[in-house]
Amino acid sequence: MSRWAWGVEPDLDELRGIARMISGSDDFEEPVPFDRVRLPPPRLAVPEAWKEFAIGEARARAERTYGQAYRDLIRAYRGDFACAPDLVALPRTETEVEQVLEWATAQQVAVVPRGGGTSVVGGVEARFDGPAICLDLSRMDRVVEVDQVSRAALVQAGASGPALNAQLPGDLQLRFFPQSYEFSTLGGWIATRAGGHYASLHTHIDDLVESVRAITPAGVWESRRLPGSGAGPSPDRMLLGSEGTLGVITRAWVRLQRRPAHKLSASVRFASWERAVAAVRELSQSGLHPSNCRLLDAAEAQLAAGGDGEHAVLILGFESADHPVDAAMARALEIAGGEVGGVRQDKEWKGTFTRMPYFRNAFPGMGKVVETFETAVTWDRFPALHAAVMGAVDATCRFAFVYPDGPAPYYTVSLPAERGAEVAQWDALKARVSRILLDHGATITHHHAVGRDHRPYYDEQRPEPFALALRAAKDALDPAGVLNPGVLV
Amino acid sequence: MSRWAWGVEPDLDELRGIARMISGSDDFEEPVPFDRVRLPPPRLAVPEAWKEFAIGEARARAERTYGQAYRDLIRAYRGDFACAPDLVALPRTETEVEQVLEWATAQQVAVVPRGGGTSVVGGVEARFDGPAICLDLSRMDRVVEVDQVSRAALVQAGASGPALNAQLPGDLQLRFFPQSYEFSTLGGWIATRAGGHYASLHTHIDDLVESVRAITPAGVWESRRLPGSGAGPSPDRMLLGSEGTLGVITRAWVRLQRRPAHKLSASVRFASWERAVAAVRELSQSGLHPSNCRLLDAAEAQLAAGGDGEHAVLILGFESADHPVDAAMARALEIAGGEVGGVRQDKEWKGTFTRMPYFRNAFPGMGKVVETFETAVTWDRFPALHAAVMGAVDATCRFAFVYPDGPAPYYTVSLPAERGAEVAQWDALKARVSRILLDHGATITHHHAVGRDHRPYYDEQRPEPFALALRAAKDALDPAGVLNPGVLV
Questions:
Q1: Which residues of chain B are in CATH 3.30.43.10 domains?
Q2: A75 labelled as ligand-binding?
Q3: How would residue A341 be classed by pLDDT, with cut points 50, 70 and 90?
Q4: Which end of chain B is more exposed for a tag (fewer CB within 10 A), N or C?
């Protein structure tokens, strides 16, 4: 992975080309080369017992300093690695994870668990005082066991999307495709309650998890494999979204699906945004459960789906491994109304979707600040929220996920950069839109997690007694407070 | 409500008739009349400030001593009210709930929250030393607000199934029909993670809850109304299943459905139990999401559905407010194979289903001990579990809920009573079958909750660090430990 970009180190000429295509200008600033970055000397030496799985080398530290927020990209681009971890542990076994937690607890050194490092909320950055260990789970990436009868697999937390699916047998898949699919890991998905492939029904990884195993400073947390249970509050639901603060997720049983044999896709155009929203609301309440139900406003449709800049576009998809989906699609199109742009057997939108982050690599150089705001809100409150966001900033909007009681709108905002002041610009933008989300009854995050960037708004959103309970739980499991300090509690 | 029976005080002649019908005998023991029951004098006087909403009267205390386990019935039948609450608070407002919690915390007096009192796991019984207040929520039973756009309603926790639905407008319903529907309440459903009407997909109340409000000794816990969120571990999921130990749930926003316009029901007979199980497994993994998918073994089918005692019977149902369900039913029947017994427009199985508990009222008198064991287990482990249960006790089996990764089997066991020793018989039966469930990787409860009866098995089932976290959360919210002592933590 590049120390600053999405994916491996990008070719600068290619980025210049993308920048020119987008901006029409040759103005392009190059990233600070690695030999000139500001990386503080490590405050920790690799303990003797960890020699086989830990490193303190500068490049390894730099590559694991940040996540993938624009705020991260621009700092790395400019060579600022002030909050680099002091050493990187790459455990191969749970025993090695335990060794790290024991040592860190005894030494009171912070541990930041890391999967694919694709956090866009400052969730994997050592943004605190004192030394830090990056606990990189990427070597624990195996599918350990598959239960073909129950359609479930036991998978190590460090498995990325492609690694996980490649190890599954026959036509079984997880069918969970977040935009970060190429790099993000199962452990990261669980820790952050990631949103996946399905626009409705099983939207979050939460629903695909059968049991979770985590190493905490207070011992091993492993829930029973169960299809369903009513025995007390769900242990899994406490780890889901815990963002590395309660324990280090090392493996999980996940529910698998057969590869779909029946797939249909269609796009519908709407001259009126309000009509499009009403159609999607009715669809969300129909019980048809489309696997894809992405509504793009006219500007977003122009950028992402070849739209004319005047029509909103709804991309509908149904899939099944078991039965034809023609009747479901026909009924969905009937509900949608609008102008149907043809029904296809399949549509390879996922390729484009997962390539999008690569384009962003050109933004720091060309002087473009970008941020996305993803949220969820009930239908009754959506119009006021939407008007407020669109009135405050220059944004495009899409619905990434829809529920019977509300959509999950996703706003993309970009600004011309004031070179050198991008972090301040980004912070101001984040504060401005986040305030609007909170004031309109929306959530500070639907699937990007809280991290350090959303923390003030999260604190405001959650019930105060729940915060007390979570803090107490954290203190019981991690009495030294070494796990991902500053996140959630 | 009767002090011992399901529903209002039953007519004894009617019970004699039922007993004779079932046992063929006239042997019938009458319940100990109220003037001869053993009810200890109250250890608490009603505080002056609670005069308008609390009572210490003997009958009110007796009626709220137990839940509805057979273990409860038989004790009440025999006049044993040793663990009656010392006073009954019937708050009309959240302020009155707060008053009770404040006083109880200051005085270190236990509070047992109660909805419809239909717990079958000892969840609402003051089975501990020291005085107890029964906090009966039944007066807080209003639908406060309806959002027709997002299809959601704000409902007070004490609303029973019928009360809740009666207050909803037009064709909107909660569509959540547990067997206890007639008496159990929204707050109870949430506190115990009740299982409802849908055999697949939205099986538990968990999925129908948009936000929850609870009064805790540490303050008001209220989550935001959100269709979905990824902001940290879900606060609602911590209250779901908390069984009155973390706070008193006072109201919740729940998701509503339109009344189904399209309904189909069919029954399928199988000569082989194994083939029936395999068919249901394939159905559960088909993505068809039947609303009803009840598999009854041959003995259960004979008792409950007019079966011939040799064939297992699968009752399949599909419903939709939006679209015809014929294609789904046709495909389901194709998957099922077996011998199809006719497809009907509708089937009023729910009437019978919710009348079943009334029959049980005859058991204490006729000398019959009964208990049900409901669990969930992955498909790969089901055959061994089933063989072990059926080998150990004389049981009938049905699947009440099915998931892609496993069924939720429900076993009914009955024994001839050794009169006077029924509680010991029941306890021995509970221990024997619970041990089998735990040893075979199943859950101690799928939808009946933990209460006091399942507690030892629950402790064994849950991950130890989770128990630490839950205990810490409890201590933070309820430092005096007054909320439902002995349950969960």
A1: 12-136
A2: no
A3: confident
A4: N
Contacts of A226 in chain B (CB under 8 A): 376-378, 406, 442-443
Q: Which of B176, B215, B185, B206 is nearest to B117 (CA)?
A: B185
Interface of A with B in 410-439 (CB under 8 A): none
CATH of region B262-352, choose from 2.40.50.1020, 3.40.50.1010, 3.20.20.70, 3.30.70.3450: 3.30.70.3450
Q: Does the beta-carbon distance from A230 to B379 stay under 8 Å?
A: no
- Residue B233, min C-alpha distance to chain A (Å): 4
Query: Which value, to the nearest 10 degrees, does the dihedral of the CA atoms of residues A272, A273, A279, A285 take?
Result: -160
Long-range contacts of A273-278 (CB under 8 A, 24+ apart): A273/A297, A273/A298, A273/A312, A274/A383, A275/A337, A275/A338, A276/A312, A276/A314, A276/A338, A277/A382, A277/A383, A277/A407
Q: Which CATH class is domain B12-136?
A: alpha beta
Q: Could you tell me where in chain A the CATH 3.30.70.3450 domains are found?
A: 262-352
User: What's the pLDDT tens digit per position in B30-68?
Assistant: 999 999 999 999 999 999 999 999 999 999 999 999 999
User: Which of A453-457, B141-145, B338-342, B417-421 comes out lowest in average pLDDT?
Assistant: B338-342
Q: CB-based contact (8 Å) between B325 and chain A?
A: no
Mean pLDDT of chain B: 96
Contact A219 B462 (CB under 8 A): no
Residues A256-284 have pLDDT tens digits of: 999 999 999 999 999 999 999 999 999 99
Residue range B426-431: mean pLDDT, rounded: 98
Chain B residues 55-94 within an 8 A CB cutoff of chain A: none
Q: What is the pLDDT of residue B349?
A: 54
Using pLDDT thresholds of 50, 70 and 90, give the confidence band for residue B303: confident
pLDDT > 70 fraction of chain A, expressed in percent and rounded: 99
Query: Where does CATH 3.30.465.10 sit in chain B?
Result: 143-258
Which two three-digit tokens encode residue A123?
């969730």
Q: What are the pLDDT digits (tens) for A384-419? A: 999 999 999 999 999 999 999 999 999 999 999 999
> Is A246 part of any known ligand binding site?
yes
CA distance A402 to chain B (A): 8
Question: Is residue B410 annotated as a catalytic residue, yes or no?
Answer: yes
Chain B residues 239-268 with a CB less than 8 Å from chain A: 239-243, 246-247, 255, 258
Measured in angstroms, the CA of B73 and the nearest CA of chain A are apart by: 23
Residue with the two structure tokens 């997002």: B150
Q: What fold characterizes domain B143-258?
A: 3.30.465
Cα separation, B445 vs B69, in Å, equals 14
B218–A468 C-beta distance less than 8 A: yes
**Helix-strand-coil split of chain A, %, nearest 5:** 35, 25, 45
Q: Is B244 annotated in some ligand binding site? A: yes
